Amino acid sequence: MKIARIDEAFGRRDELLALILSSFAYMDDVIDPPSSAHRLTLASLAQKARDEIAFAAIESGRLTGCVFCKPEPGFLYIGKLAIAPASQGKGIGRRLLIVAEGIAREKGLPALRLETRIELTANHATFARWGFARTAENSHPGFTRATSIEMQKRLD
């Protein structure tokens, strides 16, 4: 498997958008509010790649995963970690997070931070196995109940 930087020269944005949408599709009837992945367009994805640090996993010429990373004070925020449904469980997510950890260390950031929906308990368990700990519950605008949890991984 090859890990490639998603930058201005990355010419596979159609495939990248399809990867994200397919990997987040299982959430459609599970989470409320709907995933922000549905608001992505080719233009907004290109902008996201300019604004953040992103990587794609490529196996046998196919895009199998991606991760977007955004430096914040004290953290590297992990967003849109997406693995193709047929490629899940093969260590791709873990490999992408190792790359993100390297970026955090290069930038002197001591931890990774992510958010996952409250309903996605299997994701909570996976991130916990990968060293993340639950640190907060948050609500999307207009909701009075918790809609997501924040998890952090210290890189000490």
UniProtKB/TrEMBL annotation:
<keyword id="KW-0808">Transferase</keyword>
<dbReference type="InterPro" id="IPR050832">
    <property type="entry name" value="Bact_Acetyltransf"/>
</dbReference>
<dbReference type="Pfam" id="PF00583">
    <property type="entry name" value="Acetyltransf_1"/>
</dbReference>
<dbReference type="InterPro" id="IPR000182">
    <property type="entry name" value="GNAT_dom"/>
</dbReference>
<keyword id="KW-0012">Acyltransferase</keyword>
<dbReference type="InterPro" id="IPR016181">
    <property type="entry name" value="Acyl_CoA_acyltransferase"/>
</dbReference>
<protein>
    <submittedName>
        <fullName>GNAT family N-acetyltransferase</fullName>
    </submittedName>
</protein>
<dbReference type="GO" id="GO:0016747">
    <property type="term" value="F:acyltransferase activity, transferring groups other than amino-acyl groups"/>
</dbReference>
<feature type="domain" description="N-acetyltransferase">
    <location>
        <begin position="1"/>
        <end position="156"/>
    </location>
</feature>
